[in-house]
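Hi C.,

You asked whether I'd gotten around to modeling the 99-residue construct. I have! Everything is below, sequence then structure, no commentary in between.
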Amino acid sequence: MRHEIIGNVPAGYLVLRCGGCKTFTYVDRFQEWKLCPVCGATIDVRRSSHYLEVEDFRVAENIVAQLEQHIHRTRKKDLSIEEREQLRAQYTEWIRGQT
């Protein structure tokens, strides 16, 4: 997998959730604000909960879609702390397998 590079720093994307409609989305890690693509709410990236940081926007898009499916399928309001830790661990293992 090829990673995007900005200067000498790999680009990073944060997977987070809109505080208004609770839709998962992602932002560039240097971005401070984002308009929710679903409800139009302004998301303050610094104050929102970060679920995961990934290096490629395509991976972020895929994870966002999977998280939305999981939340709707399980009818949960949010991921538990354990589920967030499991998500991060699974992503770490996936990255290790890519190298």
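If it helps when you're writing up: The CA atoms of residues 5 and 11 lie 5 Å apart.

Thanks,
B.
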